[in-house]
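User: I'm preparing a small set of examples for a lab meeting where we compare how different chains pack in three dimensions. I only have the primary sequence for this one, and I'd like the structure in token form so I can line it up with the others. Please keep the answer compact; I'll paste it straight into my notes.
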Amino acid sequence: MSWGTILLIVLIFLAAIVLAGVSLRRDPGRRGSAPGKGHHTLRSDYNSGMGGGNSAEWQVPRDPQAYAKRFIPKGKTK
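Assistant: Understood. Below is the structure token output for the 78-residue chain.
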């Protein structure tokens, strides 16, 4: 591999990092959803294209503390 090719790969990698940083700083408040009462309904669809597939729908609480509590095993106090 020549030095020119290595330099090009490094420049592309650095440009991707810079663009990702700019994108995150441009819209910091637009990521995620606002906390509140009630639930969010999430949906997942899968289709293999060969006649198979699956569809699922579930709800998660909008309150971040209630959402985090779902990951704590039952019977765990601290």
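A couple of notes for your slides: Residues 3-26 form the longest helix (24 residues). Helices lie at 3-26, 64-69.

User: Perfect, thanks.
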